[in-house]
Amino acid sequence: MRHVPLTALLLTLSAAGAATPTFLNVATGSPTGTYSAMFKNIGLVCTQNAYLRERGTSGSLENIDLLLSNEVSLAFVQSDVLKARQQIDKDPRVENIKALLPLHREELHLFARPPVVKKNILGRTTTTGIQTFADLKDKRVGAWGGSLITARVLTAMSGVPFQVVSLKDQPSAFAALQSGQVDAVLAVVGQPATWVKNLSGVNLIAVPTNARLSAIYTPAKLFYPNLSANSVPTIAVQSVLATRDFKTPERKQLLLGYQKCAMSHLVNLQEDEGMHPKWQDVDFKTWPWPRYK
């Protein structure tokens, strides 16, 4: 597909009655995160995306708030955050949110300190700490951003009651884990996450699924040789690039053009060197949220 120069696109819009170019803000996440990387990747194959401006954020939870409050026009979000806002919070504004692009699945990463093994005077050993998901019962699980919503959905649907502790970001979450302020940390991020590959002194805990969870999440496995010699079972949630249901012709043309370009260049996004490996999980076929048309 031939790239459309930005100048030609703007001239076309001007001829159609648009007085000035339309610029749209896009909420992504941290500069080193998957959302930011994928946004930049699309920009490499869709040159007409020059009208999109990235806004760094703390992740899905902030992104959906920015989108709903009309501070950005597009936002990368976890689909479970959207569903929770719709089904749990009963926020009527969510009905105006549409999926511009269905993206990758983001895996649930559950971390805990290594268990402590003690031997008593009789030579008997006891083990304390989090070794399985069931061990989270009545414990404190730290999370930040969209992972806060996932943690709340997880404790409600898994049958394992635990306290969700809101933390500022990834560094503060692991500081709280190491100091004992929380017993585990939950992070929803597409693997391989650079910061996870740099971790040490923590274990990955398997996250099981059940009939209730399978309505939102799919089975997955984590592969981090620095944390486990074997793969660790978990579940994943699909992310989307969401927008509001804009009706103005010039904005609709921009958004649908961006959507069409990204979908027609999926092979480039998957195979060109330097693209994020999570593009391998994208097929643009599964829409977990109503599509923008």
Automatic annotation (TrEMBL):
<protein>
    <submittedName>
        <fullName>TRAP transporter solute receptor like protein</fullName>
    </submittedName>
</protein>
<keyword id="KW-0732">Signal</keyword>
<feature type="signal peptide">
    <location>
        <begin position="1"/>
        <end position="18"/>
    </location>
</feature>
<dbReference type="InterPro" id="IPR011852">
    <property type="entry name" value="TRAP_TAXI"/>
</dbReference>
<keyword id="KW-0675">Receptor</keyword>
<dbReference type="Pfam" id="PF16868">
    <property type="entry name" value="NMT1_3"/>
</dbReference>
